[in-house]
Design brief:
InterPro entries: KsgA/Erm, rRNA_Ade_methylase_Trfase_N, SAM-dependent_MTases_sf. It comes from Wallemia mellicola. Keywords: Methyltransferase, RNA-binding, rRNA processing, S-adenosyl-L-methionine, Transferase. Pfam families: RrnaAD. It is a single chain. The protein has two domains: 190 residues, Rossmann fold, CATH 3.40.50.150; 88 residues, Helicase, Ruva Protein, domain 3. The longest helix has 15 residues. 39% of the residues lie in helices and 15% in strands. By secondary structure, the chain is of the alpha/beta class. The protein is elongated, with a radius of gyration of 24 Å. α3 packs across α4 and α11 crosses α12. About 8% of the residues have low confidence.
């Protein structure tokens, strides 16, 4: 039987669910099982695509897999053919019931654990090896995987690739789903860097927020945007105060920033062509001057 997270059950119990509306994109076939309005459900129906996703994951017989939103189990079935076990989390109790019935009485049942709840609120099981194979809207996926100098390279790209190696695996057209969504999809592989860079995400994100405000402008130009110097000076004084160090006002913040940009060689660089290592080098130089972004 599927297990339920307490908070998720209270929010998504059967008694609280409105009747599913027929979907105009379902090709004329109304299926009350799908609730695209409440849960955004689009079931992967193409077995070749499901198999390709599992093959790209390079699963081993000793692997434990955690699947988010299994739906009716088209992908789950193929995961169980390869992996040791699979734990799934499904927000819709109706889908969880369908999934449970699909494997009831089969050998795979003992290797499948179904949890009803919201993945965002769930306590995740321990995994010794973490590789995420995720499907996103095509444009979002391409931005995750984008490289410096390309049209898609953006703050999201840099922030995501700070801690992970991200690769585009395959495109999945909307015709492979039932009902078909409005957008195309892509599958990406995300592998955390080990060890991760020793930097707080808030600091890195603060720097990229400044530099990607106008990604094709120079770093020097982006730091002159309204409020940036005031924010950096406020952060510098707060940092020094917290460390009980003397605040040196002999050089104003504008001069400090200009000096750092020139010394690091990034004054005329543009975020559109800078990579993660460039941002880390620049951030380190600012930290050396007690200038912080988070």
């Amino acid at each position: 039987m599927p297990k339920a997270l307490k908070s998720a059950t209270e929010k998504f119990s059967r008694s609280h669910q409105p009747a599913a509306k027929s979907d105009s994109n379902s090709g004329g076939t109304s299926n009350p099982l799908f609730n695209t309005d409440r849960f955004g459900q689009h079931i992967l129906k193409n077995p070749l695509v499901a198999q390709a996703i599992v093959d790209k994951a390079s699963l081993r017989a000793t692997d434990k897999v955690f699947e988010i939103g299994p739906g009716t189990g088209n992908l789950t079935a193929r995961i169980l053919e390869k992996a040791k076990s699979c734990q799934v989390i499904e927000m819709d109790p109706r889908m969880a019931a369908e999934l449970s019935k699909r494997f009831q009485g089969k050998p795979e049942q003992r290797r499948l654990e179904i949890v009803i709840g919201d993945f965002v609120k769930a306590d995740l099981p321990f995994f010794d090896v973490v590789v995420a194979i995720l499907m996103f809207q095509r444009e979002f996926a391409l931005r995750l995987c984008a490289r410096p100098g390309t049209e898609m390279w953006c703050r999201l790209s840099a922030n995501a690739q700070l801690y992970s190696k991200i690769d585009h695996i395959m495109k999945v057209s909307k015709g492979n789903f039932r009902p078909p969504p409005q957008v195309e999809s892509s599958v990406v592989r995300i592998v955390p860097l080990d060890p991760p860079p020793p930097v707080k995400f808030e600091e890195f994100d603060g720097l990229t927020r400044v530099l990607f405000t106008r990604r094709n402008k120079t770093c020097r130009s982006n730091f002159t945007a309204a409020g940036v110097y005031d924010m950096l000076e406020s952060n510098r004084k707060a940092w020094l105060t917290e460390k009980n160090e003397m605040i040196d006002d002999s050089e104003n913040i504008k001069s400090r920033v200009e000096r750092i940009l020139v010394q690091t060689g990034f004054a005329e660089s543009r975020a559109a062509k800078m990579d993660v290592d460039d941002f880390l080098k620049l951030l380190s130089a600012f930290h050396d001057e007690n200038i912080h972004f988070g």
